[in-house]
Hints:
Elements (H helix, E strand, L loop, with lengths): L1 E10 L4 E3 H5 L6 H8 L3 E3 L7 H16 L8 E5 L11 H9 L5 E5 L5 H14 L6 E8 L17 E11 L6 E8 L7 E2 L11 H5 L6 E2 L1 H22 L9 E4 L4 H10 L11 H4 L6 H11 L8 E8 L3 E8 L4
Parallel strand pairs: 4-5, 4-6, 11-12
Antiparallel strand pairs: 1-7, 2-3, 6-7, 8-13, 9-10, 12-13
Helix pairs in contact: 3-4, 7-8
The site of oxa(dethia)-CoA (UT7) has 20 residues, from helix 2, helix 7 and strand 12.
Amino acid sequence: MYSSFKSIGAYIPSKKLTNKDLEKMVDTTDEWIKQRTGIDERPIAEDNQSTSDLAYEAAKIAISRSGLEKEDIDAVICATITPDFLCMPSTACVVADKLGISHITAFDISAACSGFVYALNIAKAFIESGMKKNVLIIGAEKMSSIVDYRDRTTCILFGDGAGAAVIGVSDKKEESILDIHTSSDGSYRDFLITPGGGSKNPCTQETIDNGLQYLKMKGNETFKIAVNTLTKDVKNILEKNSLSSEDIDFFIPHQANLRIIDSVAKKLDFPMEKVVLTVEKYGNTSAASIPMAINNWYESGKLKSGNLMLLDTFGGGLTWGSALVYFSQK
Ligand code: UT7
């Protein structure tokens, strides 16, 4: 018995934050942002939309495209670093309730930008062990709720959105999630961090005055580790499965920075027509980035059932991972 990627859905907020808008907010230029990141604009959620609202919209589409009824879902996993509530309840519980599903397993995972690949790995394990039959996985973020719009080194990067997928059962290897590798190194935890509001620095007037509730990033250091780690990770998973870049239909990397994607694709010999790019329009949407990219390729008619996708991600923790997945939406 195999686990299988049965459907994709996404929600992209209609409000956009453009480079020109950012020029009016911080000391930056459209030219600098485009050159250094490849980003033009980022979707931004409305003030009254929380992460579960974005996740719910994406989840509805993924369930309807899977051909299943919501009652067939027996677990909901939401990957997010911008949950509706800091500690509880989980965003997955809120989304399940909004979908009208109860009495099922529902929980969040925190693996930053790698969250969707981590969630996929958990769903694969649930299904292949026989514990669950249809797992709804979601990557959803309202990054605008933790971005400091006075910090030009981070506010130019991030956007809001959600992507969701239904992972089910198949008896065919060519419809399966072939392999997933996930990893981490917590010694780099201060490279991407929201220092305030947790048990280490509980929320006080002082933490708020010092902006510790906002995301901080050592961008340049993270950039270098990202390129090396992503390249090594992809080489390993391809080698382990006796595959080469030629066997892959679409390479779908985490959309953090066009320069990172370009550099990794070149090192791995992926022609750019096989590389899925959404960073220009969506920016970096953390855990939502990969499922939003898959959905974009699906809705533009490029991604077809039977295509072999290579997912590759890197983010705070540090965490990273890669996955070889047949797209099996019928
Ligand atoms: O999703 C999780 C993983 N995240 C990543 O992988 C993100 C990785 N990092 C990056 O994408 C890039 O490092 C950035 C886009 C954040 C920055 O690009 P960079 O080429 O690494 O620039 P840098 O940090 O080395 O800064 C170069 C210069 C600095 O000025 P000086 O010191 O050379 O005078 C910065 O102050 O660019 C300056 N700078 C800016 N200038 C205009 C930094 N941000 C901006 C800005 N506009 N927005």
